Amino acid sequence: xxxxxxxxxxxxxxxxxxxxxxxxxxxxxxxxxxxxxxxxxxxxxxxxxxxxxxxxxxxxxxxxxxxxxxxxxxxxxxxxxxxxxxxxxxxxxxxxxxxxxxxxxxxxxxxxxxxxxxxxxxxxxxxxxxxxxxxxxxxxxxxxxxxxxxxxxxxxxxxxxxxxxxxxxxxxxxxxxxxxxxxxxxxxxxxxxxxxxxxxxxxxxxx
Length: 207
Fold this sequence. Notes:
The chain is of the alpha/beta class. The chain has eight helices and twelve strands. Strands 2-1-3-4-5 form a five-stranded parallel β-sheet, with helices on both faces. The protein has a four-stranded antiparallel β-sheet with strand order 6-7-8-9, with no helix packed on it. Helix 6 runs antiparallel to helix 7. It is elongated, with a radius of gyration of 19 Å.
């Protein structure tokens, strides 16, 4: 799981990064909301961990801005602010969980593993994709793809609802040209009967 951690307490941030990395998570640490905004525009993440009390913008305002920009990344707030109004507002803008400081790092790990367990199988229309076994089922029937087609399917399916940059798709799938990429995407659309949109100048997305 690729995690973006926004925490302005450097000691806590370093502790969480070390603990999560040791447990197989890939973590990017930032220390203010503006850094987080810039980072989310450049990269895709499976989960956001946001502090609320930040020097430049509250974590709640940040998440609200991301949601308004159609960023659907699951978010967990970590905060010492425990008044019910703040907690309620956090869930109102789209947070999936709220951890009150101080907390044991192991508690965070338990909650992240629960989120990961829910992401093992990705379902879209009549397609089911197990990201651990890498089995792809359509109406219960297993589908087999070439290596390059699978790599393309994998990254697009893991980012449903988000635009994946064309250069990223070319690099991951190892297609040598934009034409080859377009042909392969067309084949995937035919195989699975799904819409893969070309967002001009940005990349491709499954909605």
